[in-house]
Amino acid sequence: MDGTHAKEISELLTSAYPNAKCELDYTSNYELLIATVLSAQCTDKRVNKVTKELFRVANTPAAMSKLGQAVLQQIIHSCGFYHTKSKSILELSADIISKHGGEVPSSLEELTALRGVGRKTANVVLSEAFGQNTIAVDTHVFRVSKRLGLSSGKTPLAVEKDLMAIYGENAGKMHQLLIFHGRYCCKAIKPNCEECPIIGCSFGDRISSLIEK
Length: 213
What we know:
By secondary structure, this protein is mainly α. It has helices spanning about 5-15, 30-40, 45-55, 60-65, 70-75, 80-100, 110, 120-130, 140-145, 155-165, 170-185, 205-210. The chain has two domains: about 5-20 and about 135-210, Helix-hairpin-Helix base-excision DNA repair enzymes (C-terminal) (Endonuclease Iii, domain 2); about 30-130, Hypothetical protein, domain 2 (Endonuclease III, domain 1), CATH 1.10.340.30. The protein contains twelve helices and no strands. It is elongated, with a radius of gyration of 18 Å.
């Protein structure tokens, strides 16, 4: 996609979603990390309900480690994959204490070395907690980027590279805009095209044909 169209998409989405931001509730880098781990294949709305209870009893690596797997599993059960997620949360908490002085690390390499933290989760933390210009490619970003013609990448990493190349220093902002558009308009099933802010733009016919595919 040429730069003019990419800029127009950014402007239209900015106008449509002026308050686009991370919808996970957190008050610290550690809480953000745990909430993002829990959000895998789970809605932010559900995660926020669970973490409201979880963070009342354990919102630091030390407190989480003392909680134990049985209690943790019970609290996060409704987020799905609670056995795997509980093991990841306890192991990453222990590593944050032993390897990072109790603080969430601020590099992609260190974050992805933690159990249960993939590239998408790490990029969310780097962007939200540390203000780094990263773009986390979740299912919404992956789907919307392809529908809008921003990327034809076959993998999340390929899409991430395309978006970083197109938007550069504004990639972090585009991350949230694409998530909001995918979450509230350009849905996987029955996208709400009649309310799409992009369909009526100068290259809307092309966008429509991509969505139909």
